[in-house]
Specification:
By secondary structure, the protein is of the alpha/beta class. It has 15 helices and 20 strands. The strands form five sheets. The protein has a seven-stranded mixed sheet, sandwiched between helices. It has a six-stranded mixed sheet with strand order 9-8-7-10-11-19, sandwiched between helices. It has a three-stranded antiparallel sheet with strand order 5-6-20. Helix 12 links the parallel strand 15 and strand 16. The model has no long low-confidence stretch (mean pLDDT about 100). Bound molecules: ligand TXE. The site of ligand TXE has 27 residues, from helix 7, helix 8 and helix 11.
Length: about 475
């Protein structure tokens, strides 16, 4: 039990336990060893989190924005000072290499808190002159927001949701994924240490039923989910019952288009990052790599060479570049997709099986070429290090094929012709696009999907729209002119 937290939940300023809740066993994906046992939130814990958040939000919403910002800034400093220990915990929870978690997970979460601490005091309303009378607007917090996280970036997701929510005067109840429940508890602890009043960021553990209980509570004004499309549909529908605000960050099958004039080494590097980083468990991954025919064989041979050099291993070793998948269930799912790809006639370029390590949920970094649009590998989200490479002849064709999917989270284009880069991106149905780059998601830029990949945007100024509502105030400056 080397990562056992003080208790399962963090509610109203402190750790809370209720062992009546069903057990949640936390497993280190590199070894299968059980590192903690937590309990699902019981109705009593959920009620305490909701009533505490609702009560605390009233004063917080009326607090001067710079004071709220000061607290979040202190939390940023604490996170950065403790990055190493937090990153090790993230590695134990997810199996992702420390080489990644120390630079990508908590650091990105700290950036979000820093950004929204800076932004929130600048959020103001406007005055609309009407020639005497006037209207002014107030951007108000929504109230109590629920955040529901996925297991791929558990601490980053908690921070990305907490930062805009809290800085803009809301309270948040966060339910981590039952697969990775540990990081969010640390965030709650750090926020309180930084001076956040009790109740404003509560963490409750549980599976879908706990999430469902939060989403449908009458005190909840908004739900922000990061997860799969099927779960998104359920949560969106449940939130609609109460006409609640929603942000949905869901899955993808994003196209990465490589034209034959591209810098091929950069395109391969981006395709590898966009399929193998975090062992392929990233929603915006470019999992359909369209390569123009002229460079296909060069692309494939260099990809195989570079992939063979990837260092798989113990995630706590700083030299390790690729860790295991998050769970046994995910391992089976990814192996299943590899089998389907082979059976459907895709050409295996590298990998294609479990990795030869004695323990853990490891698979080899894998690439299939000659994938066609109708193959399962080109249509469904695998969420593992499995790259699908498709051929294309020309620009018009590739745009049509890239858009032929229910998803619309992200897309990338590699070309030396920048006019073409902009022209193609303008026609791609995706919420987040890159030209000659891939998967970079700085907090300064909006992030989110179109079509089944979601609604709303996280990060950037765009998130302000999703954590506030506008009150419009008409001010009459003269006598009321009534006809009766
Ligand atoms: O995700 P879910 P799971 C994909 C990935 C993975 C599959 C299932 O392929 O294999 O989805 O993973 C909570 N009301 N992605 O089961 O079900 C749940 O407890 C309220 C891709 O982990 O989407 C968890 O906290 N909440 C994806 C969160 O929703 C509910 C990231 C996400 O769970 C709920 C994650 C309900 N009815 C998985 N049901 C991406 N693309 O980013 C579940 N939850």
């Amino acid at each position: 039990m080397r990562a056992q937290p003080k208790a399962s939940h963090f509610v109203n300023g402190d750790y809370v336990e209720d062992t009546a809740g069903a057990a949640i066993e936390v497993v280190y994906p590199a070894t299968g060893e059980m590192i903690a046992v937590l309990h699902e939130a019981t109705p009593a814990v959920i009620e305490a989190a909701l009533s505490g958040a609702a009560a605390a939000q009233k004063a917080w919403g009326a607090t001067r924005p710079v004071e709220r910002a000061r607290i979040l800034r202190r939390a940023v400093d604490l996170i950065r000072a403790r990055n190493e220990e937090l990153s090790v915990l993230e590695t134990l929870d997810t199996g992702k290499p420390v080489q990644e978690t120390t630079v990508a997970d908590w650091p990105s979460g700290a950036d979000a808190l820093e950004y929204f601490a800076g932004l929130a005091p600048t959020v103001t309303g406007e005055t609309v002159p009407l020639g005497g009378d006037f209207v002014y607007t107030i951007r108000e917090p929504l109230g109590v927001c629920v955040g529901i996280g996925a297991w791929n970036y558990p601490s980053q997701i908690a921070c990305w949701k907490a930062a805009p929510a809290l800085s803009l005067g809301n309270a948040m109840i966060f339910k981590p994924s039952e697969v990775t429940p540990l990081g969010a508890l640390k965030l709650a602890e750090i926020l309180v240490e930084a001076g956040l009043p009790a109740g404003l960021f509560n963490v409750v553990q549980g599976r879908g039923t706990v999430g469902g209980a939060l989403v449908t509570d009458r005190r909840v004004a908004k739900v922000s989910l990061t997860g799969s499309v099927p779960t998104g549909r359920k949560v969106y529908a449940a939130a609609a019952e109460g006409i609640r605000h929603v942000t949905m960050e869901l899955g993808g099958k994003s196209p990465l288009i490589v034209f034959d004039d591209a810098d091929v080494e950069s395109a391969i590097g981006a395709a590898m990052l966009g399929n193998f980083y975090s062992t392929g468990q990233i929603c915006s991954n470019g999992t359909r790599v369209f390569v123009q025919k002229g460079i296909k064989e060069r692309f494939l041979s260099r990809l195989a060479e570079r992939t063979a050099a990837i260092r798989l291993g113990e995630p706590l070793d700083p030299e390790t570049q690729l860790g295991p998948l998050v769970s046994e269930a995910q391992l089976q799912k990814v192996l299943g997709y590899m089998q389907i790809a082979k059976a459907e006639g895709a050409r295996l370029i590298c990998g294609g099986d479990r990795a030869a390590l004695n323990t853990g949920f490891y698979v080899q970094p894998t690439a299939f070429a000659d994938v066609t649009d109708d193959m399962t590998l080109a249509r469904e989200e695998v969420f593992g290090p499995v790259m699908a490479i498709l051929d294309f002849e020309n620009e018009e064709e590739v745009i049509t094929r890239a858009n032929d999917t229910e998803f619309g989270l992200a897309a990338g284009v590699f070309t030396a012709d920048l006019a073409r880069g902009h022209r193609v991106v303008a026609q791609l149905q995706a919420g987040t696009c890159w030209i000659n780059a891939y998967n970079l998601t700085p907090v300064e830029g909006p992030f989110g999907g179109v079509k089944s990949s979601g609604v709303g945007r996280e990060n950037s100024r765009a998130a302000v729209e999703h954590y506030t509502q506008v009150k419009s105030v008409y001010v009459g400056m003269g006598p009321v002119d009534a006809p009766y």
